Amino acid sequence: MFEFLKKPQPTDGLQGRLLEARGIGLELSGRRILRDVDMTVEPGRITTIIGPNGAGKTTLLRILLGLQAPTEGRLLRRPGLRIGYMPQRIVVDEVMPITVQRFLALGGRAPRDELRRVLGEVGVSHLLEQPVQSVSGGEMQRILLARALLRRPHLLALDEPAQGVDVSGQGEVFQLIAALRDRYGCGVVMVSHELHLVMEAADSVVCLNQHVCCTGRPEAVSQDPAYLRLFGHSIPPGVAVYTHHHDHRHDLHGDVVKDVAPDREEC
Amino acid sequence: MDDFILRALLGGLAVALVAGPLGSFMVWRRMAYFGDTLAHSALLGVALGFIIGISVNLTVIVLCVSLAMLLVVLQRQRRLASDTLLGILAHSALSLGLVAISFLEGVRIDLMAYLFGDILAVSWNDLWWIFAGGLVALMLLLVLWRPLLAVTVHEDLARVEGVRVSLVSIGFMLLIALVIAVAMKVVGILLITSLMIIPAAAARRLSSTPEQMALLAAVIGSLAVAGGVWGSLEWDTPTGPSIVVAAAVLFAVIFALPGMGALKRVVARR
């Protein structure tokens, strides 16, 4: 609870990047969550973290955002970095009377016209005066995106942005994100498991399964043996990925690997 | 109007004005029992004040804040649930306070006044303390308002947006401690929480923004104080409990009102 007393993070050697993770690892009560993760987030580019369930994607994002302290490694962050964050799912308790307008203003003061304009950008300007509790899951995602954009962020951090959106709407969500990146000129880091749609929208992909299996441009990653081992060759898009149920022992292609910790080669 | 009634009303209204907005936060953050626990510990603070020989108000604040910190630390462990911990601390602190007071020799403490309040005995001196403390609390609440609201709605989001969550939480606990010390004289430590929770809960049904709820809670609290003081003079009942009963009646009436939709729209248009 006294994290405000801690020294600021070192920021040397960022070379214009927004964020850089160096050898990040996390172990919680004896359980290994992440190991030796290196990744960077560049301004104006979309970096997408993909990986099976339980791969530690959300945890990695939380570490990048400073919401969770890693047990190993260093996180470099550009000084004064302004982040717009869209968490996975928000439920505002009924006991709090709050309209969409008031909810948006919590992220920072903004004139009403500005609120309406940004809500319009994400396609839900008609919700401005509604109670937050009355909107649907997909609408809430867009409201959260609007709140993030209102901060004029250098970096947009999105956790499963297409969650709660039906399959036909998911492509639209990723197109919207790409368009917003162009308009605001911000960097984007997001977590997703919607492989094919994500691959189209990303400039760079980090394939994660507790450690970084492979990373690079989407075309390169989708041909990478490590990626193919993790996700299979010709899987249908979307939910099919869920049926794989990986664990960190990488046993999905038949070889049962003994109960050892994973490493880079074994992906 | 008699002087003592005027003082009672002034003191009670001052407390209600602060307790309403703060109580709204306690309702939103599900901290009713937390506040109750801190209030229970206030008696120990009173005893300490007499033992050390300094201002009781000061020791009450210090003790409440210390207990709040202790709770934060204890809540980190997972073996006992929060409400169990609160139950243990609330009643241990209250009993410790009673035991400590019994050891005090040569000092006569009106226990009932501390437990249930003695608003009709509020002196001008007490009143200045209530005004000063209440004003500080209101200003602190004003400064904390937006970050505290952001943290209450979604902590992670607020943190990423740059809110210093720990600082805000500590500030909030300080506020609760301060208001307990301020309100002690009016409704007593066993009933303080009700003056924060009941008006806020009643205001929920009539509000569509957090600010409306906080202001309405202050208004409903003030009505309860006025009604309670009047009732206690009329029927010769204890004043602190009468104020709480008045608040409960207001709550019940507001909840039982039919067709609240129309009224809510009127309030929302303001």
Write a brief caption for the model.
The complex is a heterodimer of chains A (267) and B (270). Chain A is an alpha/beta fold and 267 residues long.
Please give a structural write-up.
The complex is a heterodimer of chains A (267) and B (270). Chain A has 267 residues and is of the alpha/beta class. Chain A has a domain at 15-82 and 186-249: Rossmann fold (3-Layer(aba) Sandwich). Helix content of chain A is 28%, strand content 22%. Chain A has helices at 57-64, 100-105, 112-121, 137-150, 167-184, 195-201, 218-223, 225-231; strands at 19-28, 31-41, 46-50, 72-77, 83-86, 155-159, 187-192, 204-209, 211-216. In chain A, the strands form two sheets. Chain A has a six-stranded mixed beta sheet, with helices on both faces. Chain A has a three-stranded antiparallel beta sheet with strand order 2-1-4, covered by helices on one side. In chain A, helix 3 (112-121) crosses helix 4 (137-150). The longest helix of chain A has 18 residues, at 167-184. Chain A is globular, with a radius of gyration of 19 Å. By secondary structure, chain B is mainly alpha-helical. Chain B has a domain at 3-190: ABC transporter involved in vitamin B12 uptake, BtuC. Chain B is 81% helix and 0% strand. Chain B has helices at residues 3-28, 32-52, 56-74, 82-103, 111-116, 124-153, 155-160, 165-187, 192-204, 210-235, 239-256, 260-269. Chain B is globular, with a radius of gyration of 19 Å. Chains A and B meet through loops of A and helix 6, helix 7, helix 8 and helix 10 of B.
